[in-house]
TrEMBL record:
One of its GO terms (biological process) is translation. The gene is rpsH. One of its GO terms (cellular component) is cytoplasm. Keywords: Ribonucleoprotein, Ribosomal protein, RNA-binding, rRNA-binding. This is Small ribosomal subunit protein uS8. Gene3D superfamilies: 3.30.1370.30, 3.30.1490.10. One of the primary rRNA binding proteins, it binds directly to 16S rRNA central domain where it helps coordinate assembly of the platform of the 30S subunit. Belongs to the universal ribosomal protein uS8 family.
Length: 131
């Protein structure tokens, strides 16, 4: 697999389109941090890290509106790809949907959202947009 983060986002996207309740994703440290951010920002219900002795698995419970069954995540977009990395400084951090969505960044101080990076005044690699 050449791009594990794109695989993570694609698994989430496919599970949402198929109206699944839970999706399982192979674990890595960056994916764990991204999952924590999605939970903190209210895009997923819950998550659980399962250690199977090998790589491990992240079980993610997806969030839907109770009556209309509309998913909380409208779209996931991979920005920085292995063939073309996208970096931004602290002053040119992107705003997703004018602040309604989030951009997940990998910075020197860890994986964080665009809002946290603005507060800490750090830039980094833009991993994805979520809205």
């Amino acid at each position: 697999m050449t791009d594990p983060i794109a695989d993570f986002l694609t698994r989430l996207r496919n599970a949402i389109m198929a109206n699944h309740k839970v999706v399982e994703v192979p674990a890595s440290n960056v994916k764990k941090e991204m999952t924590k951010i999605l939970k903190d920002k209210g895009y997923i219900l819950n998550y659980k890290f399962v250690d199977d002795g090998l790589q491990g698995v992240i079980k993610i419970a997806l969030k839907y509106h109770p009556e209309t069954k509309i998913p909380a995540i409208k779209d996931l977009k991979r920005v920085s790809k292995p063939g073309l990395r996208k970096y931004c400084g602290a002053l040119e951090l992107p705003r997703v949907l004018n602040g309604l969505g989030i951009a997940i960044l990998s910075t020197s101080q860890g994986v964080m959202t665009d809002k946290e990076a603005r507060q800490k005044h750090v830039g980094g690699e833009i991993l994805c947009y979520v809205y």
